[in-house]
Amino acid sequence: MAEDSKGVSNLLHENRTFPPPEDFAREAVAGADLYERAQQDRLAFWAEQARELISWERDFEQTLDWSEAPFAKWFVGGTLNVAYNCVDRHVEAGNGERVAIHFEGEPGDTRTLTYAQLKDEVSKAANALASLGVAAGDRVAIYLPMIPEAVISMLACARLGATHSVVFGGFSADALHSRIVDAEAKVVITADGGYRRGKPSALKPAVDAALAKSETTVEKVLVVQRTGQDTEFDESRDLWWHEVVDPASPEHTPQGFDSEHPLFILYTSGTTGKPKGILHTTGGYLTQAAFTHKNVFDLKPEKDVYWCTADIGWITGHSYLTYAPLANGATQVVYEGTPDTPHRGRWWEIVEKYKVTILYTAPTAIRAAMKWGDDIPEKYDLSSLRVLGSVGEPINPEAWMWYRRVIGGDKAPIVDTWWQTETGALMISPLPGVTATKPGSAQRALPGIVVDVVDDAGQPLENNVGGFLVVKEPWPSMLRGIWGDPQRFKDTYWSTFEGMYFAGDGARRDDDGDIWFLGRVDDVMNVSGHRLSTTEIESALVSHPAVAEAAVVGAADETTGQAVVAFVILRSSHAEDEGITEALRQHVGQEIGPIAKPKRVLVVSELPKTRSGKIMRRLLRDVAENREVGDATTLADSSVMDLIQENLKKGS
Length: 652
Ligand code: 6R9
Prior knowledge:
Layout: H1 22-27, H2 33-40, H3 42-53, E1 62-65, E2 73-76, E3 79-80, H4 82-95, E4 99-104, E5 110-114, H5 115-131, E6 139-143, H6 148-160, E7 163-166, H7 173-183, E8 187-191, E9 193-196, E10 199-202, H8 204-213, E11 220-224, E12 238-240, H9 241-244, E13 257-258, E14 262-268, E15 276-281, H10 283-296, E16 305-308, H11 315-327, E17 331-335, H12 346-354, E18 358-361, H13 363-372, H14 375-378, E19 387-390, H15 397-407, E20 414-416, E21 451-454, E22 467-471, E23 481-482, H16 486-494, E24 501-509, E25 515-520, E26 525-527, E27 530-532, H17 534-542, E28 547-557, E29 561-570, H18 580-592, E30 600-603, H19 617-624, H20 640-651
Parallel strand pairs: 4-17, 6-7, 6-8, 7-14, 8-11, 11-12, 16-17, 16-18, 18-19, 19-20, 29-30
Antiparallel strand pairs: 1-2, 3-13, 4-5, 9-10, 14-15, 15-23, 21-22, 22-24, 24-25, 26-27, 28-29
Helix pairs in contact: 2-3, 3-10, 4-5, 4-6, 4-11, 5-6, 7-8, 10-11, 13-15, 17-18
Ligand 6R9 is lined by residues 268, 314-316, 391-394, 416-421, 442, 503-505, 517, 520, 612.
């Protein structure tokens, strides 16, 4: 066991590897030469990608201007229109009949949009927004369910050069209000409601409540009719989408915008304080999103059916549902609802129905499917799947193996992709035709990306010692700042280590140079001077057959400084196991060592999660330390904390 006072202890060992199937490697989009080309001349490599993957209205003169670091300018002097890149050019190239979106509503209604139809819809929406006074530089808030209008709205904004701020449909009126105010939005696009767990769930009342909270800059609210439920309407402010967009002209000439024109703001909660409006711009963002999507998912746009299960309220929904797949001319599935409505096989039914070839989802969903049992996915034909992606959290080796075996038929490569709202696009991931994949490791920086694992002083660490992940060179899709707060941008990301971007994640490299993520550094526990990673202990717990999900936190302890407290969800078949908590303590002791043994194991039925499935350990720490639970406004389901406290009362 590595004991180091500087980094994070490294306790978990994993030696299994899975080389790409030979035929896959032979036909793969990306070969090992990409690493070499990027290594030889990083900026020339990115310039080449930008010119190959993106259509520029005016070519750029300089690849990177880093003279005002950490404020980057990429592809300086270039102009482009993102919506033109995502729709029009595919129609011009003769692919107008290709399906862009197979939409599957939760109640089972479907809609197919070809690229030609999508171009018309985006143009109509752009004309309608323009008629409401939206122009380049204005901000538009989007608060929609997962329906085609969400993608259409984002692209319509991009077409006009208006900056969108998508707010997750599960967020409250308060959260929506603060985001509208911070971005000074002119228009809000919403819907009467969406379908969630088998019933219509209203959205418009939250917009009304948000706008009633204070005087705002919002002039108009555009409302999509999705569920047909009764909706209050303020005639002076509200407009129905079908009355404004449907009759608008499908002709709209896209204009080129500067490569650094603001494309969108997306708020990320962080662990404390007010949400940060992460700002992304145009040329660099689209380049890296398109490059990574094509190469990491091995995309062959004429054959593949791609499905990213993320909500558009998350960065994954921006980069890998809206922008990159459409820029690459892919055919994709967009699904409105939850994985278990009306039954727990819904996702696999969708894979079978559309013959999905590339699936991109999150560990939280994989663990839920594991908990429900292999017999459910086994009922469906999943043989079309050839690449599986994971994002959002470290994937536990156990969940990785299950994903590969049960969903991937023991052959589809798994790409575990590490990135952040701030990085805009994938940064660390295997290349599926090149890398021998390893359960639980995100592996290597992608071509053109330079990362390292450093100690507290910013010095590179040797292998097998846990430390902090940093990015050492600017990258095209990097955030350009925090909306309205340049100082916070510098303080948060660029002041911990001189000249390096600090991601806030713990990581280590193994002897092959592969990177393992250890969890957010804010969540690292300090037990008797050992810094323990949440990820490793959670993975050890999940490797026990009784455990479906686990979250560990450090709670103040008189003797050890902090003590490990574990919250576990048991698999239904083990719910009644006697002495399970003691067995789990012993199991962790055996798997990774006595220091990591949880002092307490608490059985719960739910864990608090964000919209992207990340566990909010901060709230669990409050519970473990018997404190009042802190700000829970960014929880996907706000009732979870009450449920956990009830569970614990009953258990004690
Ligand atoms: C894309 C996204 C970013 C944080 C990031 C890290 C965690 C995401 C991961 C991962 C380990 C992966 N994270 N992917 N950790 N392995 N493959 O999730 O963006 O919502 O901003 O979260 O998520 O902790 O720093 P965002």
